[in-house]
Amino acid sequence: MNEKQMEIVEQYDVEVRSSFRSRGCLQLETDRGLLTIMPYNGSPLRLAFELELQKLLQAEGFHNLDIILANKEDGLISYDKYRTPFIMKHSFEGRECSLKDERDVERACRNLARLHKALRNLKDYRVEKRETPSIPDMLNGKKLELRRIRNYIKKSGRRTEFELTFTSCYASFYEEAEKAVSMFAKKEPGFFQQGYGICHGAYHQHNVLMLEEGEATLNLGQFHYNQQIMDLYNLMRKALEKNQFQCKIFQAAVKGYEEELKLEKEDYEMLKILFSFPEKFWKISNQYYNSKKCWMPPKNLEKLKKAISQNDLRRRFIERELP
Predict the structure, then answer these.
(1) How far is CA 279 from the centre of its chain?
(2) Largest separation between any pair of C-alpha atoms in the chain
(3) Per residue in 235-255, is it b (16+ CB within 10 Å) or e — as a string?
(4) d(CA 62, CA 216)
(5) pLDDT for 187-222, tens place per residue?
(6) 214-217: strand order across its sheet
(7) Quick check: pTM over 0.85?
(8) What's the N-to-C CA distance of the chain in angstroms?
(9) Beta bridge partners of 42
(10) 144, 148, 150, 153 alpha-carbon torsion, rounded to 10°
(11) Is residue 220 within 8 Å of residue 65, measured between CB atoms?
(12) Strand, coil or helix: what is 62?
């Protein structure tokens, strides 16, 4: 442990026995168990809301959370001599969820359903300005952004391989985006309240740890209000993309989730619309649009080509599993 890290540790009432580096943080073996020190770039209020939600979930019986620790001054953020902010959290001896292992996907989705059940019990817990756009508004916004990106490329006259590849496939992906958005127009207003509540907001493989005694759920700081199916969709999409849209991955996810919470007909309808939207194509295009155009990382072009090559697999998956 270096001098800077010692300066932070000394602000907490813990006895450190050993330390080691981990992904972007420092892990500490202490008299209070395994702890983590990491840089923090958010607001103090957001951190306070995260801790409040963690405590409410614990009271509902949902444990294995990376609880935030207060320092000796009862503050949640500690600063080094350069005023760099750090936080300390409880940690766990486990490994990240592997999206290529269907058993891990099943466990992660079961854990997500347990989290959603606990969150649904917190009906009276409201945090202002944590609502996010409805799913139809979100997808429509992404569709319009795709058009802006296409118009930008046309006006710029740039002709790198990335831009040529984007232009060649834009029409078919945009048509899919339009179709997905239009599917919402046929739904009754109540459809968009199905499963509405608190979402984790960033439930992916890096925020789920596989433990011997269960699973740990990390980083609740991005929680917000929307339809909880978005959490499940985001994890499913990443897992399916990693596995060439193999149906067994989707089925493992559904099996795990439904062991705790039944998916209704409306949930499957929502999943169909979400998977019908070309999310990966939008995500790569968005990264391009918000980057410095003077140099594009080769990885971005690889991702774009992969999204194109997987598109037929995605369509077939929808036809088989979400007809």
Answers:
(1) 13
(2) 62
(3) bbbbbbbebebeeebbebbbe
(4) 10
(5) 988 898 889 999 999 999 999 999 998 999 999 999
(6) 95-96, 208-211, 214-217
(7) yes
(8) 55
(9) none
(10) -170
(11) yes
(12) coil
